[in-house]
Amino acid sequence: MRLIDAADFIALLRFESHGSLADLVSSAAELYFLPGTVNFGIGGNYSLDWDTEPEITLDLELKPDGVTIYAQLALGKDSAGLEINHIAFQKPSNDPDENTAFLVKSLNAAKFTKSYPTALAG
Predict the structure, then answer these.
(1) Are strands 55-62 and 67-75 parallel, antiparallel or unpaired?
(2) What local confidence, expressed as pLDDT, does residue 2 receive?
(3) In the 3-class helix/strand/coil scheme, how is 79-106 assigned residue by residue?
(4) Which of 9, 33, 47, 68 might form a disulfide with 56, Cβ 3.0–4.6 angstroms?
(5) Structural domain tally of the chain?
(6) Considering the domain boundaries, does residue 117 fall inside one?
């Protein structure tokens, strides 16, 4: 996401070009997660003033199997962060530890991993 200029993000947010933002988020996320796992949410925001560095906030929805995570990605000059606002399990357990274990398992299963060919024995 840092390959995209902050001014471009601001323009896309200001002119509500949600389709373009969704494409950028999907393209960036597919380097790390399976397609469809990370999606642009319902909007975003930016902070830009004469005496500060720009900061971009994008709403995200992470959708590994069985769970939806609503979060906000904050991108600043020297920092980035992800704030989780809500986690919705399709089949929640009464045990929070089981929910956490399921979340970890589901996110790990959604990771994009490259497989490299192994040398065949001759």
Answers:
(1) antiparallel
(2) 87
(3) CEEEEEEEEEECCCCCCHHHHHHHHHHH
(4) 9
(5) 1
(6) no
Q: Is residue 67 situated within a structural domain?
A: yes
Q: pLDDT tens, 14-56? A: 999 999 999 999 999 999 999 999 999 989 999 999 999 999 9
Write down the H helix ranges in 1-122: 6-14, 18-29, 96-110
Q: What 8-state DSSP symbol labels residue 111? A: B
End-to-end CA distance of the chain: 44
Q: Which domain holds residue 94?
A: 6-110
Confidence of residue 120 (pLDDT cuts 50, 70, 90): low
Tell me, yes or no, whether 99 lies in a domain: yes
